[in-house]
Recover the amino acids of this structure.
């Protein structure tokens, strides 16, 4: 037998580690807001950000200078100990598996704040073997430090090999929380010719047909990330985990960021990263369902209480499948409404 029998998935990987979750905890995660934990000024802002963002992530990997890696790790621990995060998730992005920092990142964090840490984001994941290694290590550390709930793993999809193995990564462990697209590393890994972090590219498009009478032809810009996001969503949703768009690097282009986030939302992503405070509200707006859509979805659910049959609403055909579409929107709206009284009112919930 080369595959793990189903029941084995739900046994802890270390004696004394908490039992793996059978279902993911339900949480609203519209934006994963990154902070650099070695910067004292940023740490000081965390208490006021609790409740304003869905997830706070202390970044230990790329963008943290090599000589600040230990300060970032210590700063994260200090911030985690000092802050009550309430319903805001606490995540970290550790350094990658072959780096000199990974082992101390994971061992020190779980020892000091294992009970507060919800999710470990693992960069540069290439296959299920990377997840298995972290899964086992976390189980050992949870057991040693008497951690009460499993710490989840979130993979960054940012290597060509990772994309090749995306389904196997998504299915690697019940500890998998989800996956984010990492467009910068992925572009480099694939040999894509762009210096941008996410977003479109003006040269990637389809040229309108030439006309007999001649004249200028329009290049319709296409989404460089469409294929990968769609593939990631299918891999994640079929494995019962969540897909996310990652970073949008041009902080001066709010409209470009919003368009990229919205494509991800429409394709099935649950959220995106915010790397700058201005991106928090963009993500909040985009990854909360539109009030008009919610009200229409509520009409569908009301018109088909048992979710079967066919009805017409405002001239549009509804059946069992559209009932399921409506439920996706209403379930998300309820989660948003539980955190935001203004949204509750706008949704009519
Ligand atoms: C994120 O880590 C990226 O590489 O885009
Ligand atoms: Mg990266």
């Amino acid at each position: 037998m080369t595959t793990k029998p189903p029941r084995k998935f739900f046994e802890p990987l270390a004696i004394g580690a908490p039992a793996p979750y059978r279902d993911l905890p339900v949480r609203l995660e519209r934006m994963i807001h990154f902070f650099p934990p070695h910067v004292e000024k940023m740490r000081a802002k965390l208490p006021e950000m609790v409740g304003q963002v869905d997830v706070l992530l202390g970044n230990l990997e790329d963008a943290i200078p090599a000589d600040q890696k230990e300060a970032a790790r210590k700063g994260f621990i200090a911030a985690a100990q000092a802050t009550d995060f309430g319903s805001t998730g606490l995540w970290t992005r550790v350094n990658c598996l072959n780096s000199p920092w990974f082992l101390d990142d994971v061992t020190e964090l779980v020892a000091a704040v294992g009970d507060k840490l919800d999710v470990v984001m693992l960069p540069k994941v290439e296959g299920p073997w990377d997840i298995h290694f972290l899964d086992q290590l976390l189980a050992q550390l949870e057991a040693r430090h008497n951690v009460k709930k499993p710490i989840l793993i979130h993979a960054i999809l940012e290597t060509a090999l990772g994309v090749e193995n995306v389904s196997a990564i998504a299915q690697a462990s019940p500890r998998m929380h989800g996956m984010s697209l990492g467009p910068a590393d992925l572009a480099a890994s694939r040999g894509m010719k762009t210096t941008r972090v996410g977003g479109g590219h003006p040269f990637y498009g389809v040229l309108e047909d030439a006309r007999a009478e001649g004249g200028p032809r329009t290049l319709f810009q296409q989404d460089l990330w469409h294929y990968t996001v769609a593939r990631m969503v299918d891999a994640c949703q079929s494995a019962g985990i969540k897909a996310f768009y990652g970073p949008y690097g041009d902080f001066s282009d709010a409209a470009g960021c919003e368009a990229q986030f919205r494509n991800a939302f429409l394709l099935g992503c649950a959220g995106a990263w915010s790397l700058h405070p201005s991106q928090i509200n963009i993500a909040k707006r985009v990854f909360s369902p539109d009030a008009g859509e919610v009200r229409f979805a509520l009409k569908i659910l009301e018109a088909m209480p048992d979710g079967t049959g066919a009805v017409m609403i405002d001239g549009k055909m509804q059946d069992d499948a559209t009932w399921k579409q409506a439920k996706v929107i209403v379930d998300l709206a309820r989660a948003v409404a539980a955190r935001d009284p203004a949204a509750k009112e706008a949704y009519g919930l």
Observations:
- The chain has a mean pLDDT of 97.
